[in-house]
Design a protein that fits this description.
The chain is of the alpha+beta class. Helix content is 47%, strand content 15%. Strands 1-2-4-3 form a four-stranded antiparallel β-sheet, covered by helices on one side. Helix 1 runs antiparallel to helix 5. The longest helix is centred in the N-terminal third of the chain and has 27 residues.
Length: 186
């Protein structure tokens, strides 16, 4: 776990955005399956996803364009609501929340993406399973979630991942050839 976090620590970040600070701009919070914090996090994140799903359903009823764009995401949220839990939060041995200090311009999520990619690559190199838990980003303003982490709500952008040995071996991703998605410009 430490080597995965170390890989995230070395990811690029927006130094000009963060500016000078006495407090380091990136934090990692590791929650272990079965712990009190994991139980709390799982409940809070599920509640947030359920609320988001309900709000989206209402918005889609009155907006056909939104319905066309968001139907896939809405179906995913409905599946999570039916499942009763957010995959990866409490279902994997570790759930890691990564926090990035907010700055100007707002590029925290880009920095978090670099961080999580580094962590993903390291986990893969260690033959560990890695799953993004993007719902974590919605928790940055949740007072109860932030207090659990020991950070101030609204000061940090968040994202997260689940890490552990996979229960099932996944089939490889089906990707197009490089030629299908590349256009050479002159």
């Amino acid at each position: 776990m430490k080597s995965i976090i170390d890989a995230g620590l070395h990811a690029p970040y927006a130094a000009a955005s963060v500016g000078s600070t006495n407090d380091y701009f990136r934090r990692f919070f590791v929650l272990k399956m079965g712990s009190k914090c994991m139980t709390t996090a799982a409940s809070l994140i599920f509640e947030e996803v359920s609320t988001m799903a309900s709000k989206l359903e209402i918005s889609m009823e009155n907006d056909t364009q939104l319905r066309e764009k968001a139907i896939g995401f809405a179906n995913r949220l409905a599946m999570i609501k039916k499942l009763g839990k957010v995959p990866g939060v409490g279902t994997a041995p570790y759930f890691i929340v990564v926090a990035e200090k907010k700055g100007f311009p707002a590029v925290e999520q880009q920095s978090l993406a670099h961080c999580l990619e580094n962590m993903w690559l390291k986990a893969t190199a260690l033959n560990l399973g890695f799953q993004l838990v993007s719902a974590t980003a919605q928790m940055a303003d949740n007072p109860e979630f932030c207090v659990m982490l020991g950070i101030n709500p609204g000061e940090w952008a968040l994202n997260g991942c689940a890490v552990g040995y996979p229960a099932d071996e996944l089939s490889p991703s089906i990707l197009p050839s490089v030629d299908e998605v590349t256009r050479w410009l002159e």
